[in-house]
Amino acid sequence: MTAVEKTTGEIRIVERTDAAEVVSEERPALSSSGADVAPVPGHDGGKVRDGEETPLIRFVGVEKRYDNGVVAVRNLDLEVRRGEILVLIGPSGCGKTTTLRMTNRLVEPTEGTILFDGEDISGFDPEELRRRMGYVIQGIGLFPHMSVFENVAVVPRLKGMKGAPLRETVERSLALVGLPAEEYARKWPRELSGGQQQRVGVARALAGDPEVILMDEPFGSLDPLTRESLQDELLKLQQALGKTVLFVTHDIAEAMKMGNRIAVLRAGELVQVGDPLSLLTAPADSFVHDFVGASNPLSKFAFMKVERVRLLTEGLPTVRIGETFAEVRKAVTSTSLIFARNPFAYVLDYAGRLLGFVDAGASRDPSMRVGPFLRRATSVSRNATIHDALLIMVTLGILNVPVLGEDGSFLGVLTFRNLNSYIWEQGEAS
Amino acid sequence: MFLGVATPRFILQFLLEHLWLVGVACGIAFPLALILGIWVTRPASREGHVARYMTQFVFLGQAVPSLAVIGLVMAVLGTGEATAIFALTIYSLVPMVRNVVEGLRSVDTSVLDAAKGIGMTPLGVLVRVELPLALPVIFAGLRTAVVITIGTAALSSQVGGGGLGRMIFTGLSMMDTGLILSGAVPTALLAIFADKALGLVERRLRGSW
What we know:
By secondary structure, chain A is of the alpha/beta class. Chain A contains 13 helices and 18 strands. Chain A has helices at residues 96-103, 126-131, 148-158, 163-176, 181-184, 194-207, 224-241, 252-258, 276-281, 286-292, 325-334, 386-396, 416-429; strands at 2-7, 10-15, 57-65, 71-80, 85-89, 111-116, 119-120, 133-137, 212-216, 244-249, 261-266, 269-274, 318-320, 344-348, 354-359, 380-381, 400-404, 410-415. Chain A has a six-stranded mixed beta sheet with strand order 8-9-10-5-11-12, with helices on both faces. Chain A has a four-stranded antiparallel beta sheet with strand order 4-3-6-7, with helices on one face. Chain B is an all-alpha fold. Chain B has helices at residues 8-41, 43-46, 49-61, 66-77, 81-105, 109-117, 122-155, 165-174, 177-206. In chain B, α1 runs antiparallel to α3. Chain B is elongated. The chains are: A alpha/beta, B mainly alpha. The A-B interface holds A 104, 106, 127-131, 134-135, 137-146, 154-155, 158, 188, 190, 201, 204-205, 208, 214 and B 108-121, 124, 128-129, 132-133, 206-209.
């Protein structure tokens, strides 16, 4: 898990190893917020294995035409894969909410079929179907006359649960959304803030252990800070539980952050579906291009990992902890690394992990050991994005960013020159 | 002053008659109002015309003076207790139905959407979400209806309904202030008491949310 932290005025990207983590391939960066950022599991990788399983939900030629002749959704073919967050996005009136509501039969399609786990949903009892799908909406829709406990208990009760298992389920669901039951279970919805209410909304959706969670602009009515933290927590939760999520939003930043894949709709038609990077680098048309903000050259870097850039691994100025400034001097004179200002050497421990760096001019005494002069180095994880690395270079005014493996091992240095070449090659290629 | 005319025994008898009229009328009207109000707010009937005309008819009823309703019913059924009860039932139906409909319609649409979306049956949504949330408005209608009916029941003595109205109208025709007051004061007290009692029941039913 990568997190950008503000520490004593400098930006430090730390690597945390988390047992529950699914190694991610690409992830959107939200470095500016300073919030803990959870990675998105496998964009077309990770546990989503293409073609191996039937998709959890499949829209086949789905159309919704209202009595007044308005076509809300036209000839939609779309798959929601197991374990992914698929975001439906588009301007208002594009049919995204209608698509979501057709999934749990709140709206019936006029044509086509929707398959849930390979079965046509029109054969399901609507209530039974909905109990297998969590539902979270922008208006939250908590039952104001029921306590938090009763709200969360609704779906498990509908599924026939009672007594101790019911209580445990409710308590577990509340714990998942960060609301300890002993403090919140007896409260009324009106006693909670908007953010807490929507947490209860998410807990209510989770309590029935649904196979998919349908979310219709769930964070749309919350203030930006609360929205950000609920997004982060939903990502973590989704990663830990592996739930499939169908997520509707009109906010492209939210879509880029939340989506493993994003389906862009316009006037009832699916324009393009793909992962965030592919929408940015290969938009299907000018509408998608403008909509995802592909004209901002920096935005795509948030979806590219530093691993894509060739790291400098040879001829680095490194010394071991316990060595002296004589070795430091030797290292900085023989290195191919270009220093922004004063020459320095990276200090590693005997296991090859990065401890920090020392300025070559910190001591004139060649027999002096480097230990007392050790300073913390700003580094990124191999899972960090180019956006993260660029941000560090620009904000700290440095040319080289060390890259670490999951175990903290020193993999090499991302140099500005190599980054520059990579960006140049990308431009040449397209 | 002929204050002696209205003995406590008389007052009690007329009060019980009055209570009987109001109780029977509202007892018939309230379940009817619930059924009607629930029916017209169901999506299936919302598209039909019958429900719409029905509510409009009921709402218009509010504008007709109570005495006119009693007169109209009497023209058909003649005089007697049945006429009085029938007229009172019709008249108390109006505020009840209006509030049942308004109460059910006032339930937050996102709450209804969520209730449906998480898999509640239509009956479950009605019983566990809509009615509890509409309860304050429905009860406000019931209270209004009961208070109005207590007042209107006084008029029903004119068509042979009995009740405290008998003392009031006899007092009026005899210019007997004491007799008028011994009918009017218990009527007023009954209305106030009924309103408060129903308020207490509502608070009990509603819980603390």
